[in-house]
């Protein structure tokens, strides 16, 4: 029985863990941000409990502040220990069914509440912190009832929120699956015609075009949720342009301006190539003399900027919006790219378009994390 390479095995385990985490409804309580949120929410709950309690001392608010301190300390204990328990149980909970994970989580929160309530009562009795000392059974039952209600509400909220997020992701992914079929039939037919013409005159070049076309389809058939390196995305775009150069000849000229790009940084696949294809299809093909496509890429302060410029068609002088020359294909590509960027990066990603100096410009900007160490 063959064994996997250690790096392959590690990567497989990482992918498996990521898949489990993605399908799990509870957030990661080991994360610092979530722990901070737990502390804030627990303190708000302590304020509510103190404000809701009747005033038992008519001398002023001094005792109320003391009560707030004690209640805050108790609630923070319960909240942080509960978060720690859910953090520790997370690897096992992710492997359970949703019903089993919910039940185990709910019972764990109740047990934590009962345990800390009992410990608090004993410490208060020994240190004489509460006067008069509340009824032991009533104290435990009151805290257990509050915990049961709040824990059920919180778990229900996390479940509904996860279901909603899953539905949003599924709908967005369904909408952007059309991008996998972005290779238009006319491009396929033109590429095959180019290959057929080159087969007799230049078989070696025809073979290169076939390889570029195969690479093009290989990338478009992959899972759109997978990331590729920026270098792979640029090479994929170059493969597409080599095919179009063979088809259009001297009518197509391409300029590249790439500055300080982190080539090993992960980016969504098919972000740049559809923009370049639109530039060729909408800006170069309609012009009798062709034109020049300019591709720019810069990286500054954690933000990647990719821009594609192409000349306006001759008919665009009377049309202030050149995107309407071919509204279906152009708008579908831009909307899909915008949707994918929003799905991957949220409001920090942008897709912008403008028309200046006889050029149509489209740019995408989005933040990059896990930046590689090999810039251009």
Sum up the structure in keywords.
7 strands; 10 helices; 13% strand; alpha+beta; two-stranded antiparallel sheet; disordered N terminus
Describe it:
It is a single chain. With 376 residues, this protein is of the alpha+beta class. Helix content is 60%, strand content 13%. It contains ten helices and seven strands. It has helices spanning 6-22, 32-52, 62-93, 98-127, 136-176, 185-201, 203-220, 230-248, 273-284, 327-345, and strands at 227-229, 252-259, 266-268, 291-300, 303-311, 350-356, 359-367. Helix 2 runs antiparallel to helix 3, helix 7 (203-220) packs across helix 8 (230-248) and helix 8 runs parallel beside helix 9 (273-284). The longest helix is centred in the middle third of the chain and has 41 residues, at 136-176. It is elongated.
**Spans of at least 5 consecutive residues with low confidence:** 1-19, 56-62, 317-329
Radius of gyration: 30 Å
Morphology call: elongated
Largest beta sheet: strand ordering: 2-4-5-7-6
Structural class: alpha+beta
Mean pLDDT: 80
Number of strands: 7
Task: Kindly state the percentage of residues in helix.
Answer: 55-70%
Cα(first) to Cα(last) distance is 43 Å
**How large a portion of the residues is in β-strands, by DSSP E?**
5-15%
Question: What does the main sheet amount to?
Answer: 5 strands, mixed
What sequence of helices (H) and strands (E) makes up the elements?
HHHHHHHEHEEHEEHEE
Count of alpha/pi helices: 10
């Amino acid at each position: 029985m063959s064994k996997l390479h250690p790096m392959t095995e590690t990567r497989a385990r990482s992918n498996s863990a990521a898949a489990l985490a993605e399908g799990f409804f509870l957030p990661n309580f080991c994360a610092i941000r979530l722990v901070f949120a737990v502390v804030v929410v627990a303190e708000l709950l302590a304020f509510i409990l103190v404000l809701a309690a009747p005033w038992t001392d008519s001398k002023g608010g001094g005792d109320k502040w003391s009560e707030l301190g004690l209640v805050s300390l108790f609630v923070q204990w319960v909240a942080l220990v509960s978060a720690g328990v859910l953090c520790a149980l997370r690897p096992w909970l992710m492997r359970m069914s949703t019903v089993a994970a919910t039940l185990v989580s709910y019972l764990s929160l109740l047990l934590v509440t009962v345990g800390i309530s009992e410990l608090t009562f004993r410490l208060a009795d020994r240190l004489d912190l509460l006067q008069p000392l509340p009824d032991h059974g009533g104290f435990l039952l009151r805290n257990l009832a509050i915990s049961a209600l709040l824990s059920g509400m919180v778990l229900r909220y996390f479940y509904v929120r996860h279901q909603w997020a899953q539905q949003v992701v599924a709908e967005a992914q369904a909408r952007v699956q059309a991008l996998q079929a972005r290779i238009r039939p006319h491009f396929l037919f033109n590429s095959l015609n180019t290959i057929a013409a080159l087969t007799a005159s230049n078989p070696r070049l025809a073979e290169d075009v076939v390889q570029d076309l195969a690479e093009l389809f290989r990338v478009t058939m992959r899972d759109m949720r997978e990331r590729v390196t920026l270098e792979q995305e640029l090479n994929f775009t170059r493969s597409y342009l080599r095919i179009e150069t063979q088809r259009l000849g001297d009518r197509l000229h391409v300029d590249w301006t790439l500055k300080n790009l982190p080539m090993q940084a992960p980016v969504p696949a098919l972000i740049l190539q559809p923009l370049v294809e639109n530039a060729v299809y909408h800006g170069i093909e309609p012009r009798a003399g062709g034109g020049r496509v300019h591709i720019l890429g810069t990286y500054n302060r954690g933000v990647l900027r990719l821009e594609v410029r192409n000349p306006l068609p001759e008919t665009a002088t009377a049309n202030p919006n050149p995107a309407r020359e071919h509204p279906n294909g152009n708008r579908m590509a831009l909307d899909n790219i915008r949707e994918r960027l929003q799905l991957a990066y949220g409001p920090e990603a942008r897709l912008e378009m403008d028309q200046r100096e006889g050029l149509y410009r489209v740019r995408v900007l989005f933040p990059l994390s896990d930046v590689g160490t090999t810039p251009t």
